[in-house]
Design a protein that fits this description.
The chain has 5 helices and 20 strands. The protein is α+β, with helices and mostly antiparallel strands. The longest helix is centred in the first third of the chain and has 13 residues.
Length: about 300
């Protein structure tokens, strides 16, 4: 993808920008709906034919479209994981307890500044469930790699096993594990496989205006965000430098959504994209573009 030189070299996306729903192609819609309801605690918002929307409040967090002949490909660009952000440690504890009660495989991990668990849905889509815990320390990327320091100044790996016993003490006996996730739950970030880190950073930082929060070329990874958040979009070349986009019959990521605070900001970013000569499709809900690795990005505005 060639991005034309732009007249405004310093461009920053609005700090109130956030992520919206993630859209996936799935092989078995019934099975996936059942998983996200039972295992994660999402609600089915709507279903029309082969497409369904799920979430925890008014907005969809996930839109699933069935394609029965689709299959999972490895070694391509696309989704590494999408991350479900719960409002606090107590809700993370409840999510973990639900997974344990169902004996669903997951990997609780302490990143210090976030506490999390990782799992895959039945079709191999990566999921992170996490709570922000900035009071515990800081982490980031640079060309020396991934660094983490806790509030005592102690260097940590950032990949330690989570102290699950301590976390589960957040729960009380009357907490219902089968209850839906809280309405405040949202998509905190997405992490993408890309073919080339430099071109991905140009797209999300230089073109769309996300801030670079960490960049480690030696690790093939980088983080960008709006408004100083640790990251809204993670980028990595861990599927291989020059990885191809998935074929048309692939399951997995269709697109993820960037939500700007209002229509004025959407028009500002739309003008930027068009000035750069990036191919874009105007839809009813916003502007659909693809990054240089062919990952779909829907840019939209918060409903007024």
């Amino acid at each position: 993808m060639q991005i034309r030189s732009l007249t405004e070299t310093q461009f920053t996306i609005h700090p109130a920008t956030r992520l919206g729903h993630v859209s996936l192609t799935v092989v078995d819609l019934d099975r996936q709906i059942a998983f996200y309801q039972k295992v994660l605690g999402f609600k089915l918002h709507w279903r029309e034919g082969t497409t369904a929307g799920l979430g925890t409040g008014d907005e969809d967090l996930l839109v699933l479209t069935e394609q029965r002949e689709a299959r999972k490909y490895r070694g391509t660009t696309g989704l590494y994981h999408f991350a479900v952000l719960v409002p606090n440690r107590r809700e993370l504890a409840r999510a973990l307890a639900r997974l344990f009660s169902l004996r669903y495989p997951n990997a609780p991990t302490d990143h210090v500044m976030t506490q999390t668990t990782y799992l895959d849905d039945p079709e191999g889509n990566g999921i992170e469930i996490y709570a922000d815990t900035p009071e515990e320390g800081v982490w980031g990327f640079n060309d020396d790699g991934f660094f983490v320091r806790d509030t005592r100044g102690v260097q940590r790996s950032g990949r330690d096993p989570l102290d699950v016993e301590s976390l589960l003490r957040e729960l009380s006996p009357d907490d219902r594990l089968e209850a839906p996730m809280p309405e405040e739950t949202k998509i905190g970030h997405v992490h993408l496989h890309v073919a080339d880190l430099a071109s991905a950073v140009r797209f999300y930082h230089s073109l769309l205006g996300f801030d670079i929060m960490g960049l480690a070329s030696t690790m093939g990874a980088g983080f960008v965000s709006a408004g100083g958040y640790h990251h809204h979009i993670g980028l990595n070349t861990w599927a291989g430098e020059g990885a191809p986009p998935p074929p048309s019959d692939a399951s997995g990521l269709r697109y993820f959504t960037i939500v700007l605070p209002d229509q004025t900001e959407l028009e500002r970013v739309t003008g930027r994209v068009r000035e750069a000569g990036v191919t874009a499709e105007q839809t009813e809900t916003g502007l659909m573009v693809r990054d240089p690795s062919r990952n779909g990005v829907l840019i939209t505005a918060r409903p007024s």
